[in-house]
Each structure stands twice: as structure tokens, then as C-alpha cells.
Amino acid sequence: MRTAGIIAEYNPFHNGHAHQISRVRALGFDAVVCVMSPGVVQRGSLALMPAQVRAEAALSCGADVVLCLPAPYAAASAEAFAAAGVRALSALGCVQALCYGAETPDAAAHMRAAKALLGPAFAGRLREELAAGLPFAAARQRAAQAVCGEAGGLLASPNDILGVEYCKAILRENSSIVPTAIKREGNDYHENSLFTDSFPSASAIRNAVIQSAASNTASLADLARNFLPASCQELFYDAICKN
After folding, report:
1. Strand-pair partners of 5
2. What is the pTM of this model?
């Protein structure tokens, strides 16, 4: 049996996430295991909905198992988040591939960038850029560009950054898991508009719910529900709109 792993926050679980799971199934995997953030997510903020609701949503849309990523790792940096997720999937001993959405659906490119970032040349160049007074993110991108031309471009996009971090974690763990990048569909990660024919970002859905709560109206929350899989809408309503 071929088993794929996904590392996610599902904050909230939306149509784009359901699409990703369906794409993973289309690649021929028999089972999908998700490692999901608990009540806290990256940067230490609280998830929009309880972990149980988000897990039920993923299970209703094709996931077979949803495991909890411990809170300290879920709220940590992208590097620590990715490392903990890869460690959990590797420990299962049955996961052949890590499937993830990326702006650049090229796992080989992510792996080349990961190898460059783990090499001694990158560490030295990063120290130079930091000494020149650059903020860490900019210094890292310039150092990556210097040691591996394509790496600098990959570190400009949030999901590509995670892809590189996943590959770094796989290398560090000496894991047999194969990274498998899937083209991220829909709005940009930071796009906050729900008015789109494509998949909106999780940020846009969260903002709609927060604005709805602040204005004491259900209209925006109802609109947000339109971008959730049908099997998840009652879960969403019970968790958000009735509270």
C-alpha cells in the first residue's frame, strides 16, 4: 500500500485543501496521513477552529488519519515546523512520500536548494550578509542566491520556503520519504480577498469570519462557508456561526 503524508495547519480546512488531497489520491496513493497543528498555529496565534473540527473536515475530504503536531513545533519557525512534521511522518515507518503545495511544483529544485542551504558555503555567506546589516530573511535569500542561483528565487515564496524546509528535514533525518510538490492552486498565500473565481487563501476566509464577528453579522461568515467543501460546512457553522 502506498501512503502519502501531508503536513498542514488547515486553518481553516477549505476547498484548496480538499483539492490537494484529491490530487494526492490521483497520484496513486492508497492512504493519506496528515500531521496537523493543534489549537495554536505558526507565529503562536490561535487557530480559527478547534483541532477536532479541522481534523473531522480533513477526514471527511479524503484523509485517512490526522495526527497532532505538538504545539511548541506548530508555533515555531518554518524550519522547526517542517522538521517536526517530517520526523513524525518518518517515525510511522509507512509513509513513502511527503506531498505539499508549492508555488514552484518542482521537488527536485527544492531538494537542490535544501542541499545548498545545509552546506558550509551557505553558512559562511549568510554570516557575511548578516554582518552587512541585512535582516535575516533578506540575508538568507541573498546568501542562497549566491551559493545556488535558483534557491534565492524559491526563498521568495512562502510555500516554496516550506518545500525547501521539508527537504532539509528529510536530509537531516536521512529519511526515505520522497518529497512530492504539487502546484498550489488559487490565490496567493497573502491574498485577503474572497471575491475570486479561484481558491481563496485561508487568510481571506479567516479575515471574513473575524470581520463578521466584529460587525455582528453573519453575511461574511456565510460567504466564507461558500469556499469550504460541502461536507465541512455544517462543521464550520457549528464551530463558528453559532458561537
Report:
1. 33, 98
2. 0.91
